[in-house]
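Course exercise 7: structure representation. Students receive a sequence record and must write out the corresponding structure in token form. The form below is the worked example handed out in class, using SigE family RNA polymerase sigma factor (181 residues). Read each field label carefully; the graders check that inputs and outputs are placed in the correct fields and that the protein name is recorded exactly as given.

STUDENT ID: A-19
EXERCISE PROTEIN: SigE family RNA polymerase sigma factor
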Amino acid sequence: MAKPDRDADFTAYAGARQAWLRRVAYLLCGDWHRADDLVQTTITKLYTHWNRASRADNVDGYARRTLVNTYLAEQRSGWAKWTVLHRFGPGSSDPEPAGAADLDAGVGAALDVDLRAALSRLPPRQRATVVLRYYCDLSVEQTAQLMGCSTGNVKSQSARGLATLRNLLDPNPIPVMEGPR
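STUDENT ANSWER:
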């Protein structure tokens, strides 16, 4: 009788955390349909390893790590380069599905679109680092552990990602006055 309990526990967890996983996946890949695919793959992997995942100290951390690893593996595989995303009309972006508005809560629509566009221009590891550090609010150490790299790597990826975002969002920054060299 352990299997029905296992399935019920997994179903309860997946149902409760699916929207959160989808938001994180969207921030990683920048496309709602692809985010749905990433979440589906992540949930499938979680189900396969639910005995181990459910015993983890932090099940959300386990799920987040599975999601990020799935995203990064997909980026390395070249699948993303071969996928053609069709837009709806000239110059338009993907339609936002119902329920996506909670991602935009408290952020102006124009700024949100600019931020999403800028985020999509970051390389995959920088993007993952920025999303984990500043959207998921993980520490440098937690991000390093999740991504399987050093804390120095997380710091440099974060700094480069933020610098790129600043340049993309403000193409005419005010120059900083430097002292004599």
